[in-house]
Design brief:
The complex is a heterodimer of chains A (322) and B (323).
Chain A: H1 14-39, H2 54-64, E1 69-71, H3 77-82, H4 87-94, H5 128-142, E2 148-153, H6 160-171, E3 176-182, E4 185-186, E5 189-190, H7 191-194, H8 203-206, E6 211-215, H9 219-234, E7 240-245, H10 263-271, H11 274-279, H12 284-307, H13 313-320
Parallel strand pairs in A: 1-2, 2-3, 3-7, 6-7
Antiparallel strand pairs in A: 4-5
Helix pairs in contact in A: 1-2, 1-12, 2-9, 4-12
Chain B: E1 2-5, H1 6-20, E2 24-28, H2 44-48, E3 53-55, H3 60-72, E4 76-81, H4 91-98, H5 101-104, E5 114-119, H6 134-138, E6 144-146, H7 151-163, E7 168-173, E8 180-183, E9 196-199, E10 204-208, H8 212-224, E11 230-234, E12 237-239, H9 243-253, E13 256-263, H10 268-280, E14 289-293, H11 302-308, H12 312-322
Parallel strand pairs in B: 2-3, 2-4, 4-5, 5-7, 6-7, 10-11, 10-13, 13-14
Antiparallel strand pairs in B: 1-8, 6-12, 9-11
Helix pairs in contact in B: 1-7, 3-4, 8-12, 9-10
The chains are: A alpha/beta (322), B alpha/beta (323).
Chain lengths: 322, 323
């Protein structure tokens, strides 16, 4: 078995640590503010917080760089932010405004930012993996030595597209990194009740690729293991499956109190909050500065989205006329 | 002008477009080394190599989704789905991904991909390899649906589809692959969204597409000898639908008969009939009629299979009841 045990943190450059801390901090604050706005009725539909899992997006995106493609999930704010989005346009999108990244047509579950090579969040669990595989094929056809990343969950690993996509990427030796965010719950069903093989990284070797199990709450570990996978992919050594173990800090979405979650286990994971773990590793003065800048950015985003217009009904109707 | 088979017209379109644009690539089951079950992709592997002509695993959902991802990176993938009957396995990727991206992203990008497949009864392939499922795609906003009936149209429409911003569902018919017709050597396209009046007439308008176009033309020929003048419109693309050609013809003839092989219930004939009644009611001399496939799974037995889809004599009789 080629899976690795959780391991203690190695050392990464301070600048990268700070970048990851900024993205974790920004995601956490952004989502806290969104929950507040949701309660005020400014956001409709579903909102799936990534709280507690932010180190995965931050670590992966810092490691893959801007040229790489990603596909995200319904729990995708962290991916979008860490891949380079500006939160004021995200906030506008999530509040359904015309100035949002998707003109208010997509919302939280479908937010995307093509210029960041972020192919989008997805309301269909398991749908991002084939798209990430295709992005890698597109890169090959165009002769570009870059990678694509599929973010998905333990729940998605029980969808047929998981096996198909791993096999597909393996047989064509594609530069895909499958990032399995194991937050231990598919909506409300615990992973041990929905997966016959709970060591999900073991699926990697079954499809002819490394399967690595890591501590998804430690951004440094995520960063370093993703770097290894990027290096392999760019050398033509094919795809990697990374299982990043983590835990949701609450229910499935903003209106789910998550009463089915064991409070003792939850508090153990909260004690290993990715935000705090990383904050302890960086210069305290720099951390404070980042937190202050994030707070300002959040307030600006709220003002921006509140002042933004709704999309025009007339323009919409004219667009869809056929 | 060269006389080519329908499948050769498609093959020419692929060669020409892959030569013209190196971001065009094709993948599917048995399409590279074997050249495809219907020989549409023959020779492409030797010419364009394994990075652009790809034999995939039997993973319909994933290779269709991969086409979406590849299209979003700026390439123009063509996916060959061996039978339209396998489309249900791809439907999340078609309906929720390919058809939605441009809209849900607020127009940040297009999905210039083609899902090429074939359908229809007539080869004794029974329930899971003989269906006509175009209505499933027709129903979904964001998809274009193309169904050529002649070698000329097959080549020109496939070239147009490859250049289109997509996504395009391109449905061939298994009984058409060996049919012949004139196909120019030159670089022509047949625009999407433009029907073709395959035969001019004054007494009644037949609205059809794909293989049924041939049956309608046979019926028109038979009735011409009786002095009945039948106009045959081959829609060629179902979405965008060329309403103008339909309505202009109905204005002239006052009678409309829609013919398709797909089952009548929920078929596109109902939608076209409703469109005619909404927009050209005053031009009509009587009700719009439909001759369609029976509301059944296609049976294996040859005699039973035959009665499930409209025949030339069904169409002749249908016209005679209306004129």
């Amino acid at each position: 078995m080629s899976t690795k045990k959780l391991k203690s943190s190695p050392v990464v450059d301070e600048a990268i640590l700070q970048e990851m801390f900024r993205n974790i901090c920004l995601t956490r604050s952004f989502e806290s503010k969104c929950i507040e706005l949701y309660r005020q009725g400014m956001i409709s539909g579903y909102l799936h917080p990534y709280t507690g899992e932010e180190a995965i997006a931050a670590g992966v995106c810092a490691a893959i760089g801007k040229g790489a493609y990603i596909t995200s999930t319904h729990r995708g704010h962290g991916h979008c932010i860490s891949k380079g989005a500006e939160i004021k346009y995200m906030m506008a999108e999530i509040t359904g405004k015309a100035t949002g990244y998707c003109k208010g047509y997509g919302g939280s579950m479908h937010i995307s930012r093509k210029v960041d090579n972020n192919l989008g969040a997805n309301g269909i669990v398991g749908a991002g993996m084939p798209i990430a595989v295709g992005a890698a094929m597109g890169l090959r056809v165009k002769g570009i030595n870059e990678v694509s990343v599929a973010f998905f969950s333990d729940g998605a690993s029980n969808n047929g597209t998981f096996g198909e996509s791993l096999n597909f990427a393996s047989v064509f030796n594609l530069p895909v990194i499958f990032v399995l965010e194991n937050n231990h719950y598919a909506v409300s069903t615990p992973v041990e009740c929905s997966s016959g093989c709970c060591e999900l990284a073991n699926h990697g070797p079954a499809y002819g690729m490394p399967g690595i199990c890591i501590d998804g709450n430690d951004a440094e570990v995520v960063y370093l293991e993703t770097k290894n996978a990027v290096e392999r992919a760019k050398k033509g050594e094919g795809p990697t499956l990374i299982e990043a173990k983590t835990y949701r800090h609450g229910g499935h979405h903003v209106n789910d109190p998550g009463l089915y979650m064991d409070p003792d286990i939850l508090s153990q994971w909260k004690a290993r909050d990715p935000l705090i773990l990383l904050k302890e590793k960086i210069d305290p003065a720099a951390a404070r500065k980042i937190e202050e800048a994030v707070a300002v950015e959040i307030e600006e985003a709220v003002v921006f989205s509140k002042n933004s217009p709704e999309p025009s009904v007339e323009e919409f109707l004219a667009e869809i006329e056929n | 002008m060269a006389e080519l088979m329908y499948r050769e017209g498609l093959n020419k379109a692929l060669f020409e477009e892959m030569h013209r644009d190196e971001t065009v690539f094709i993948m599917g089951e048995g399409i590279a080394k074997r050249g495809g079950s219907f020989k549409v992709t023959e020779g492409l592997l030797d010419k364009f190599g394994p990075n652009r002509v790809i034999d995939t695993p039997l993973s319909e959902a994933t290779f269709t989704g991969a086409a979406v991802g590849a299209a979003l990176t700026g390439t123009r993938p063509i996916v060959e789905l061996l039978f339209v009957d396998f489309a249900p396995m791809t439907m999340d990727m078609v309906i929720n991904q390919a058809a939605k991206y441009n809209f849900m992203s607020g127009g940040q990008g297009t999905v210039p991909m083609i899902l090429r497949t074939q359908g229809g009864a007539g080869n004794g392939l029974a329930g899971q390899h003989s269906q006509s499922l175009e209505a499933l795609f027709y129903h979904i906003p964001g998809l274009k649906v193309v169904m050529p009936s002649t070698p000329y149209d097959a080549k020109g429409l496939l070239k147009a589809a490859i250049r289109d911003d997509g996504p395009v569902i391109f449905i061939e018919h298994k009984l058409l692959y060996m049919t012949k017709g004139e196909v120019p050597e030159d670089d022509y396209i047949v625009p999407l969204g433009k029907a073709d009046v395959k035969r001019q007439g004054d007494d009644i308008t037949l609205i059809t597409y794909s293989y049924m176009t041939l049956k309608c033309l046979e019926a028109a020929e038979i009735l011409a000898k009786e002095g009945i003048s039948v106009e045959v419109i081959d829609l060629r693309t179902l979405t965008p639908l060329d309403k103008e050609t339909i309505l202009t013809s109905v204005e002239k003839t006052g009678k409309a008969l829609i013919v398709h092989e797909a089952v009548k219930r929920g078929g596109i004939g109902g939608d076209i009939a409703a469109t005619i009644m909404e927009e050209a009611y005053d031009d009509l001399d009587g009700p719009v009629r439909r001759i369609c496939g029976k509301n059944t799974t296609i049976p294996y037995n040859k005699n039973l299979e035959k009665v499930c889809v409209p025949s030339t004599s069904d169409i002749v009789e249908g016209i005679l009841e209306m004129v």
